[in-house]
Amino acid sequence: MKYKVGDRVIVRKDLVGGLEYPYSNPLCGKLYFAHMMEKFRGEEYEIVAIDYVCEVYSLSLGEEESEWVFNDVMLMPAGGLRSLICKRNIK
Predict the structure, then answer these.
(1) Residue 79 in contact with residue 68, Cβ under 8 Å?
(2) Count of CB atoms situated within 10 Å of the CB of 36
(3) Which of 7, 25, 63, 80 lies at a 20 to 30 A Cα distance from 45?
């Protein structure tokens, strides 16, 4: 897994609701990205918990924190050049 609790990440802007995204470990299959999760795309959050068995992250989503999880493919690190490009494309 790429991140640890406390890391700041951005939910990738190009995720499409209704599709599945592969885990880093191909043996784990894919994680479904629900249409209701689309509102989180392009936003920065803090990782608040990690489930190492399922290889998913819980993010600081307020009241919805316990409802949604994300995998490595759905996230990118905040603060790097890539995140600056993402933020610029959002505006």
Answers:
(1) no
(2) 11
(3) 25
CB atoms within 10 A of CB 34: 11
pLDDT: which is higher, 36 or 89: 36
Give per-residue burial for 56-90: e unless 16+ CB within 10 Å, then b: bbbbebeeeeeebbbbbbbbbebeeeebeebeeee
Bridge partners of residue 11, in order along the sequence: 75
pTM for this predicted structure: 0.83
Q: Which residues contact 36 (CB under 8 A, 6 or more apart)?
A: 17
Mean of pLDDT values over 51-72 = 95
65's tokens = 């924190």
